[in-house]
Write a structure and sequence with these properties.
Layout lengths: L3 H18 L4 H5 L8 H16 L6 E5 L5 H13 L7 E5 L25 H10 L6 E5 L2 H11 L5 E6 L4 H11 L3 E9 L8 H14 L3 E4 L9 E5 L3
Parallel strand pairs: 1-2, 1-4, 2-3, 4-5
Antiparallel strand pairs: 5-7, 6-7
Helix pairs in contact: 3-4, 6-7, 7-8
Amino acid sequence: MKFESVDKIYKAERAQLSEKYGPREMWSLVDHWPLYCGIGNLGRFLSIYDILRDTIAVPGHIAEFGSWRGANLMFLAKTLQLLDPHSSKMVHCFDSFEGLTNFAPQDGDATTLTGQYKGSLEELTDLISLYRLQDNIEIHKGYVENTLPQTLSQREELSFSFVYCDVDLYDATKTILDHMHPRLSKGGVFVLDEWNYAEFPGETKAVREFLEVHGDAYEAEQPTRARQPSLILRKKKY
C-alpha cells in the first residue's frame, strides 16, 4: 500500500518522542497543535476546509456520517462558525458510537476490524458544550441504516449542501447515498473518506453501484493535498 513504509517510520519515531518527553497537560498540547500534527493529518483538514468553503453558498445543512471521537465533526462546526456565522446551517452528526458493525459480504476482510472506531458520546457532548456549539450541532445516535431513513421521513424540511461519508462499510454507505441523493442541493457534495481503499472495499462498491444509477447527476473530483478524503461527488447544477 502506498505510504505504508513512510507511515511505519513516522509512527515509530513519534512513539519514541512521546516516550522521551513523557506525559503533558492536555491543553498545552492542544494550544500548540502545529508542533505535533503530522503533515498528512494537516493536509486532510486543509482539504476538508477547501471543500466546505467551496460549498458554503450552496443551500442546505452539513452532515457527517461516522464521527468516531468527533474531531472532524467539531472541525466542520467551528469552520462553519468562521465562514458563515449568521446562516441557519447546522452540522448533523450520525453515528452509533459502537464502532464498526453490521458487515455485508461486500466488506470483505473489514470484519477483522469489528469494534474499531468506537467513540464516546459523553466526551463529545462535553466538548460541544465547552465551545458553546449546542445550537450548531445535532446528534443522531444509532445505526445509520435506521436513523437516517427515520430522520428524513420525520424532517421533510432537511436539505443538505455537504455530506461527509466516513462509515467505511457497504450497507451504511449505500444507505447514505441512496437516501441523501434527493436531499442534496445542486452544487452540493458527497465527500467519501475510504473510496478506493483496499481495506474497505464495501464503500467503493456502494459508490460504484450508486453511480451506475445516478452518475449523470454528478461530477467526480479528486480532493487536493490529502490521501483522505479520497473522492468528491459534486451534484451538477444543470
